[in-house]
Write a structure and sequence with these properties.
Length: about 270
Protein backbone atom coordinates (compact mmCIF):
# COMPACT_ATOMS: atom_id res chain seq x y z
CA UNK A 1 0.00 0.00 0.00
CA UNK A 2 1.69 3.18 -1.20
CA UNK A 3 0.85 6.84 -1.66
CA UNK A 4 -1.24 7.16 1.51
CA UNK A 5 -0.87 9.38 4.57
CA UNK A 6 -3.45 7.74 6.82
CA UNK A 7 -5.19 4.36 6.94
CA UNK A 8 -8.59 4.28 8.65
CA UNK A 9 -9.14 0.83 10.16
CA UNK A 10 -12.77 -0.32 10.46
CA UNK A 11 -12.45 -3.94 11.51
CA UNK A 12 -14.73 -5.82 13.91
CA UNK A 13 -14.82 -4.55 17.49
CA UNK A 14 -12.67 -7.40 18.82
CA UNK A 15 -9.36 -6.76 20.51
CA UNK A 16 -7.70 -9.95 19.22
CA UNK A 17 -8.74 -9.14 15.64
CA UNK A 18 -7.48 -5.55 15.81
CA UNK A 19 -4.19 -6.54 17.43
CA UNK A 20 -3.49 -9.02 14.63
CA UNK A 21 -4.55 -6.51 11.97
CA UNK A 22 -2.41 -3.72 13.41
CA UNK A 23 0.60 -6.01 13.53
CA UNK A 24 0.10 -6.77 9.84
CA UNK A 25 -0.48 -3.12 8.91
CA UNK A 26 2.63 -2.08 10.81
CA UNK A 27 4.67 -4.52 8.76
CA UNK A 28 3.14 -3.47 5.43
CA UNK A 29 2.94 0.32 5.69
CA UNK A 30 5.75 2.89 5.51
CA UNK A 31 6.64 4.16 9.01
CA UNK A 32 5.22 7.65 8.42
CA UNK A 33 1.70 6.42 7.60
CA UNK A 34 -0.80 6.93 10.45
CA UNK A 35 -2.94 3.93 11.36
CA UNK A 36 -6.21 5.25 12.83
CA UNK A 37 -8.85 3.02 14.36
CA UNK A 38 -12.59 3.59 14.22
CA UNK A 39 -13.02 1.54 17.39
CA UNK A 40 -15.99 2.76 19.40
CA UNK A 41 -14.75 1.51 22.74
CA UNK A 42 -11.38 -0.26 22.74
CA UNK A 43 -8.29 1.51 24.04
CA UNK A 44 -5.43 2.19 21.65
CA UNK A 45 -2.93 1.17 24.34
CA UNK A 46 -4.36 -2.35 24.14
CA UNK A 47 -4.52 -2.41 20.34
CA UNK A 48 -1.00 -1.10 19.75
CA UNK A 49 0.55 -3.53 22.24
CA UNK A 50 0.93 -6.03 19.39
CA UNK A 51 2.75 -3.50 17.16
CA UNK A 52 6.49 -4.11 17.25
CA UNK A 53 8.06 -1.48 15.02
CA UNK A 54 6.06 1.75 15.00
CA UNK A 55 3.35 1.86 17.69
CA UNK A 56 3.83 5.64 17.85
CA UNK A 57 1.82 6.07 14.60
CA UNK A 58 -1.29 4.28 15.94
CA UNK A 59 -4.23 6.38 17.15
CA UNK A 60 -7.98 6.24 17.73
CA UNK A 61 -9.97 8.31 15.21
CA UNK A 62 -13.53 7.38 16.15
CA UNK A 63 -16.22 8.80 13.83
CA UNK A 64 -19.87 9.03 14.80
CA UNK A 65 -22.83 7.50 12.96
CA UNK A 66 -23.90 8.30 10.34
CA UNK A 67 -20.25 9.17 9.60
CA UNK A 68 -21.00 10.60 6.16
CA UNK A 69 -23.02 13.34 7.87
CA UNK A 70 -21.95 13.69 11.51
CA UNK A 71 -18.76 15.80 11.74
CA UNK A 72 -17.49 14.45 15.09
CA UNK A 73 -14.29 12.41 15.23
CA UNK A 74 -12.85 11.55 18.65
CA UNK A 75 -9.05 11.47 18.62
CA UNK A 76 -7.10 9.80 21.42
CA UNK A 77 -3.70 8.20 21.54
CA UNK A 78 -2.44 5.19 23.43
CA UNK A 79 0.48 4.88 25.80
CA UNK A 80 2.93 4.67 22.87
CA UNK A 81 1.26 7.14 20.49
CA UNK A 82 3.40 10.18 19.66
CA UNK A 83 2.15 13.73 19.99
CA UNK A 84 3.07 14.28 16.35
CA UNK A 85 0.71 11.48 15.30
CA UNK A 86 -2.16 12.98 17.29
CA UNK A 87 -1.62 16.42 15.78
CA UNK A 88 -1.33 15.04 12.24
CA UNK A 89 -4.53 13.05 12.69
CA UNK A 90 -6.41 16.09 13.96
CA UNK A 91 -5.13 18.15 11.03
CA UNK A 92 -6.22 15.46 8.58
CA UNK A 93 -9.74 15.13 9.98
CA UNK A 94 -10.19 18.90 10.02
CA UNK A 95 -9.01 19.08 6.40
CA UNK A 96 -11.93 16.87 5.29
CA UNK A 97 -14.50 18.90 7.20
CA UNK A 98 -14.65 16.90 10.41
CA UNK A 99 -14.92 18.27 13.95
CA UNK A 100 -11.97 16.62 15.67
CA UNK A 101 -12.18 16.47 19.46
CA UNK A 102 -9.06 15.40 21.33
CA UNK A 103 -9.33 13.27 24.46
CA UNK A 104 -6.51 13.89 26.92
CA UNK A 105 -6.73 10.36 28.32
CA UNK A 106 -8.12 7.00 27.32
CA UNK A 107 -11.56 5.98 28.52
CA UNK A 108 -13.58 2.86 27.62
CA UNK A 109 -16.16 4.05 25.08
CA UNK A 110 -14.27 7.34 24.62
CA UNK A 111 -16.64 10.29 25.27
CA UNK A 112 -19.68 10.46 22.98
CA UNK A 113 -20.65 6.83 23.55
CA UNK A 114 -20.27 7.27 27.31
CA UNK A 115 -22.63 10.23 27.18
CA UNK A 116 -25.08 8.22 25.08
CA UNK A 117 -24.79 5.33 27.51
CA UNK A 118 -25.61 7.49 30.52
CA UNK A 119 -28.71 8.82 28.79
CA UNK A 120 -29.81 5.39 27.52
CA UNK A 121 -29.59 3.95 31.03
CA UNK A 122 -32.09 6.48 32.34
CA UNK A 123 -34.35 6.10 29.28
CA UNK A 124 -34.55 2.33 29.82
CA UNK A 125 -35.17 2.86 33.53
CA UNK A 126 -38.08 5.24 32.94
CA UNK A 127 -39.69 2.80 30.50
CA UNK A 128 -39.09 -0.13 32.85
CA UNK A 129 -40.81 1.78 35.65
CA UNK A 130 -43.79 2.61 33.39
CA UNK A 131 -43.17 6.32 33.77
CA UNK A 132 -43.84 6.78 30.06
CA UNK A 133 -43.76 4.93 26.75
CA UNK A 134 -40.86 4.59 24.32
CA UNK A 135 -42.57 7.03 21.97
CA UNK A 136 -43.10 9.61 24.69
CA UNK A 137 -39.56 9.42 26.04
CA UNK A 138 -38.27 9.89 22.48
CA UNK A 139 -40.54 12.93 22.09
CA UNK A 140 -39.36 14.31 25.41
CA UNK A 141 -35.77 14.11 24.19
CA UNK A 142 -36.07 15.07 20.54
CA UNK A 143 -38.54 17.94 21.11
CA UNK A 144 -36.91 19.13 24.32
CA UNK A 145 -33.23 19.11 25.28
CA UNK A 146 -32.26 17.37 22.05
CA UNK A 147 -33.07 20.53 20.10
CA UNK A 148 -30.71 22.55 22.27
CA UNK A 149 -28.00 19.87 22.16
CA UNK A 150 -27.92 20.21 18.37
CA UNK A 151 -26.80 23.81 18.85
CA UNK A 152 -24.78 23.95 22.07
CA UNK A 153 -23.31 21.40 24.42
CA UNK A 154 -23.94 20.84 28.11
CA UNK A 155 -21.39 23.31 29.44
CA UNK A 156 -22.49 26.20 27.22
CA UNK A 157 -26.12 25.52 28.12
CA UNK A 158 -25.13 25.60 31.78
CA UNK A 159 -23.69 29.06 31.13
CA UNK A 160 -27.02 30.18 29.66
CA UNK A 161 -28.83 28.43 32.50
CA UNK A 162 -27.20 30.78 34.99
CA UNK A 163 -28.84 33.84 33.45
CA UNK A 164 -26.88 37.10 33.67
CA UNK A 165 -24.57 35.51 36.24
CA UNK A 166 -23.48 32.85 33.80
CA UNK A 167 -21.97 29.54 34.79
CA UNK A 168 -20.84 30.83 38.18
CA UNK A 169 -24.41 31.53 39.23
CA UNK A 170 -25.59 28.30 37.62
CA UNK A 171 -23.54 26.26 40.07
CA UNK A 172 -24.41 28.53 43.00
CA UNK A 173 -28.09 27.91 42.39
CA UNK A 174 -28.22 24.37 40.99
CA UNK A 175 -25.28 22.38 42.36
CA UNK A 176 -27.30 21.19 45.35
CA UNK A 177 -30.50 20.25 43.50
CA UNK A 178 -28.55 18.53 40.74
CA UNK A 179 -26.55 16.44 43.18
CA UNK A 180 -29.75 15.41 44.94
CA UNK A 181 -31.46 14.50 41.65
CA UNK A 182 -28.56 12.24 40.65
CA UNK A 183 -29.40 9.95 43.55
CA UNK A 184 -32.79 9.13 42.01
CA UNK A 185 -31.39 8.08 38.64
CA UNK A 186 -31.96 4.44 37.77
CA UNK A 187 -29.71 1.50 36.94
CA UNK A 188 -31.95 -0.96 35.13
CA UNK A 189 -30.95 -4.54 34.48
CA UNK A 190 -31.51 -5.47 30.85
CA UNK A 191 -33.30 -8.72 31.56
CA UNK A 192 -34.98 -10.60 28.68
CA UNK A 193 -38.32 -9.29 29.96
CA UNK A 194 -37.17 -5.68 29.91
CA UNK A 195 -35.61 -6.08 26.48
CA UNK A 196 -38.91 -7.42 25.18
CA UNK A 197 -40.71 -4.44 26.69
CA UNK A 198 -38.28 -2.02 25.07
CA UNK A 199 -38.48 -3.73 21.69
CA UNK A 200 -42.28 -3.80 21.76
CA UNK A 201 -42.34 -0.11 22.64
CA UNK A 202 -40.06 0.77 19.74
CA UNK A 203 -42.12 -1.24 17.25
CA UNK A 204 -45.26 0.53 18.45
CA UNK A 205 -43.53 3.86 17.87
CA UNK A 206 -42.18 2.90 14.45
CA UNK A 207 -45.49 1.64 13.10
CA UNK A 208 -45.35 0.82 9.39
CA UNK A 209 -42.28 2.93 8.62
CA UNK A 210 -39.24 1.12 7.24
CA UNK A 211 -35.63 1.51 8.30
CA UNK A 212 -34.94 3.24 4.99
CA UNK A 213 -37.75 5.74 5.59
CA UNK A 214 -36.53 6.48 9.11
CA UNK A 215 -32.96 6.96 7.90
CA UNK A 216 -34.14 9.35 5.17
CA UNK A 217 -36.11 11.40 7.73
CA UNK A 218 -33.12 11.55 10.08
CA UNK A 219 -30.66 12.51 7.35
CA UNK A 220 -32.87 15.21 5.84
CA UNK A 221 -33.21 16.99 9.19
CA UNK A 222 -29.52 16.47 10.00
CA UNK A 223 -28.50 18.08 6.71
CA UNK A 224 -30.76 21.04 7.43
CA UNK A 225 -29.24 21.52 10.88
CA UNK A 226 -25.70 21.23 9.54
CA UNK A 227 -26.50 23.82 6.88
CA UNK A 228 -27.83 26.22 9.50
CA UNK A 229 -24.76 25.72 11.68
CA UNK A 230 -22.46 26.27 8.70
CA UNK A 231 -24.21 29.55 7.86
CA UNK A 232 -23.90 30.66 11.47
CA UNK A 233 -20.19 29.86 11.49
CA UNK A 234 -19.64 31.81 8.27
CA UNK A 235 -21.13 34.92 9.86
CA UNK A 236 -18.65 34.61 12.73
CA UNK A 237 -20.27 37.19 14.96
CA UNK A 238 -17.95 38.57 17.64
CA UNK A 239 -18.28 36.82 20.96
CA UNK A 240 -19.97 39.02 23.54
CA UNK A 241 -18.33 39.34 26.90
CA UNK A 242 -20.39 37.98 29.76
CA UNK A 243 -21.84 40.52 32.21
CA UNK A 244 -19.46 41.55 34.92
CA UNK A 245 -20.60 41.68 38.53
CA UNK A 246 -18.64 44.45 40.19
CA UNK A 247 -16.84 43.74 43.48
CA UNK A 248 -19.25 44.14 46.35
CA UNK A 249 -22.30 43.81 44.13
CA UNK A 250 -24.50 40.94 45.25
CA UNK A 251 -26.05 38.85 42.50
CA UNK A 252 -29.60 38.16 43.65
CA UNK A 253 -29.98 34.39 43.50
CA UNK A 254 -33.77 34.76 43.57
CA UNK A 255 -33.96 36.81 40.37
CA UNK A 256 -35.11 35.13 37.19
CA UNK A 257 -32.50 32.90 35.60
CA UNK A 258 -32.56 29.94 33.33
CA UNK A 259 -33.16 26.43 34.60
CA UNK A 260 -30.60 23.75 35.18
CA UNK A 261 -30.45 22.92 31.48
CA UNK A 262 -30.49 26.41 30.01
CA UNK A 263 -34.19 27.24 29.56
CA UNK A 264 -35.63 30.56 30.78
CA UNK A 265 -38.27 30.18 33.52
CA UNK A 266 -40.93 31.62 31.21
CA UNK A 267 -40.38 28.70 28.83
Amino acid sequence: MTGVDLVQENGPERLDFKQKLYKQLDELLPPDVIIASSSSGLKMSDIQSAVASHPERCVIGHPFNPPQLIPLVEVVGGAKTSEATIQRAITFYKSIGKKAVRLNKEMPGHVANRLQGALAREVYYLIAEDVLSAADVDDALSWGPGLRWGIMGNMMLNHLGGGPGGTEHFFQQFAGPMTTSWKSLGSPVLTPELQTKLVDGVHAEVGSRTIEELEAERDEILLGLLELRAKRSERSLPTRSRPIIEPGEDFNSSQDCDDVFGAPPSL
